[in-house]
Amino acid sequence: VSPFDVPRQNLSAMDGYAIAQGSTLAKDSTIEIIGESQAGSAYTGKLTEGQGVRIFTGAVVPNSCDTVIMQENTNFAEIRETLDKSQPYTITLTQSAQLDNNIRKQGEEIKSGEAVLQKGKRLNPADISLLANLGISQVKVFKPLTVGLLATGDELVAIGHALESLAQIYNSNTPTLKSLLSDLPINICDYGIIPDNLEQTTAAVHEAMQDCDVLVSTAGVSVGDYDFLTTVIETLGQINHYKVAMKPGKPFVFGEL
Questions:
Q1: What domains lie within the chain, and their CATH numbers?
Q2: What whole-number distance in Å separates Cα of residue 132 and Cα of residue 6?
Q3: Rounded to two decimals, what is the model's pTM?
């Protein structure tokens, strides 16, 4: 929730002149300039009809002003070299101006108390910019999920190592899964390649249970003599669903640990 209005006060959207309320805004009108308002240093004096202040983009518009005239719509370019800014001077409008022109009104972007981000929003750079603009340095967020990856099989070899026999293949599943998961706001734990061994499979799954919210494994869930993962899941948790109507790929286990 925003703690204040954005903008926090009326601001100039242009370099030019802030004109006092009630002033004539027709072409060839003259305005007496008696001060200056710049970003970070607002003009605090009083203005009356027919007066104005030099103002710059982002500067506070004095309360007594209701219009900002672009300097390009005045004779400023003609007189700038002769101006003594320490003294009042006069400008002339080279075209008529409209009331409220070139003013970013207080609260026109965000109102104080307005909800700017909702629970469940995935923060992006624009959201961080918004929070910073509101002076909010911390927000409560959900802890990212940790997803564990586990590959099983005596035939698997990690990429970067040599294949020492024709019975071996490279582990392509783990790099593929990492790529598929890479766009999600999660942490990934890679438990490497586990051989077809009941004790080692049990130890790896038990370790993943302590670290992860989700474990994605490949192989080891068919009916072969060396498929131990199904047994481990049944021992450490439960199987909720087994097998899908697809060939190849029928052996599929979904469960809880």
A1: 11-104 (2.170.190.11), 146-256 (3.40.980.10)
A2: 12
A3: 0.65
